[in-house]
Amino acid sequence: MLPLRKNIAEMTGYVPGFQPDGEGWIKLNTNENPYPPSPRVVEAIQAELSSGGENLRKYPDAGSKEARRVAAELYGVDPSSVIMANGSDELLNNLIRAFADAGDEIGYVHPSYSYYATLAEIQGAKVRTFGLTDDFLIADFPKRYPGKIFFLTSPNAPLGFGFENDYIAELAERCAGILVVDEAYVDFTDVSAMELVKKHKNIVVTRTFSKSYSLAGMRLGLAVAQPEVIEALDKIRDHYHLDRLALVAATAALQDQDYLQSTVARICETRDWFSAELRKLGYRVNPSQANYIFAAPPDFDGKRVYDVLLARKILVRYFSDPLLQHGVRISIGTRGEMEKTLTVLGEVG
Ligand SMILES: Cc1ncc(COP(=O)(O)O)c(C=O)c1O
User: Fold this and answer.
1) What does the pLDDT read at residue 193?
2) What is the tens place of the pLDDT at every residue in 83-118?
3) 200 with 207: CB under 8 angstroms?
4) Which end of the chain is less packed: N or C, by CB atoms within 10 Å?
5) CATH number at residue 246
6) 29 lines ligand 1 (CB under 6 A)
7) Does one domain contain both 86 and 169?
8) How far is the CA of 89 from the centre of ligand 1 (A)?
9) What are 109-162's pLDDT values in tens digits?
């Protein structure tokens, strides 16, 4: 027997969305962007690789200074309020390591991103989940939530709705610890909690480059919070957590907001069209502020829809969770991919 910590020996580990081998798949299961990243990102990576990759010999900038500067300018905050990361998952992990000791409690909304629970398990922290009311508020959230961290996914994954800023500000007041607003999908909507960071010492906003910026393969994220929080996160991260290619990619992506807006607009247009068409087939489709929809077929059998699409090499996400098994989460691909998906669903109901 390995001398593992008890909680590591007992845990199962997170199972990420399936990445199929081979050609011919329509991949609508992990909320990737169907469009390539900005050409400026590709140029920046190529420039970094010029002279036979000479730059790769040297360590990258441990402080991600240029990327932080550009992000800070974009969000109207001081660079001391920004940290870059190796995917937003790295931030979620380090927030738990920084704020929750073994035995402490963290909380989140169920359904949302279950990776929070896996990270808490690794740390030996306890997890408390809260359900949703019919109008998408948190059910039974206490006047004073004593947990060390509360994770709020906004827009919610997989349901697609976002929380209003007044409500988020109120939650921050009620949290004794940190309120992490996980804005992985926020570029697909207009409401962001970023402004709240200036007024609330305990709000941390996390973002990813994996969805709206089409950079899931580079592993990039960032967080905005008051400098004290950023200092703590800086202390515990790996010093060279971002490689040279990721750093130049992050900077170039943030600098090309026009490209971001154009691909986001295409995805939102396809999402709204696809949602309307599915409703015509009798599906219940949650209004979505993200790059996916949660859709329930007329017989409320999500597994059947998943299997039917899988047989045609169309991958969507099915969750066996009792709250979600009546539907599937479908990432929004290109208009052509969604037309093919709709044709199959039209044939099989
Ligand atoms: C709600 C949410 N937060 C965070 C992440 C992780 O993103 P990243 O690729 O930046 O680690 C995901 C990825 O699917 C997500 O859905």
Assistant:
1) 98
2) 999 999 999 999 999 999 999 999 999 999 999 999
3) no
4) N
5) 3.40.640.10
6) no
7) yes
8) 6
9) 999 999 999 999 999 999 999 999 999 999 999 999 999 999 999 999 999 999
Does the global pTM surpass 0.90?
yes
Q: Among the three residues 237, 256, 275, which one is the final residue of a domain in this structure?
A: 256
Q: Which residues contact 179 (CB under 8 A, 6 or more apart)?
A: 149, 150, 152, 168, 171, 172, 200, 202, 203, 204
| Residue 307 in domain | yes
CB 157 near ligand 1, within 6 Å: yes
38 lines ligand 1 (CB under 6 A): no
Which of 137, 151, 146, 161 minimizes the C-alpha distance to 204? 151
Exposed/middle/buried for residue 166 (C-beta within 10 Å: 0-12, 13-18, 19+): exposed
71 alpha carbon to ligand 1 midpoint, in Å?
19
CB 71 within 8 A of CB 82: yes
Asked which of 240, 256, 272 is the last residue of a domain, the reply is: 256
Helix, strand, coil shares of the chain, percent, nearest 5, are 40, 15, 45
Write out pLDDT tens, residues 47-81.
999 999 999 999 999 999 999 999 999 999 999 99
Indicate whether 251 pLDDT > 90.
yes
* pLDDT score of 16: 86
Domain count, the chain: 2
The three-state DSSP-derived secondary structure of 245-299 is HHHHHHHHHHHCHHHHHHHHHHHHHHHHHHHHHHHHCCCEECCCCCCEEEEECCC
Same domain, 192 and 116: yes
Residues 49 and 16 in one domain: no
Report the nearest-CA residue for atom 15 of ligand 1.
184
Q: What is the pLDDT of residue 18?
A: 83
Residue 58's domain comprises: 39-256
Cβ pair 178, 204 in contact under 8 A: yes
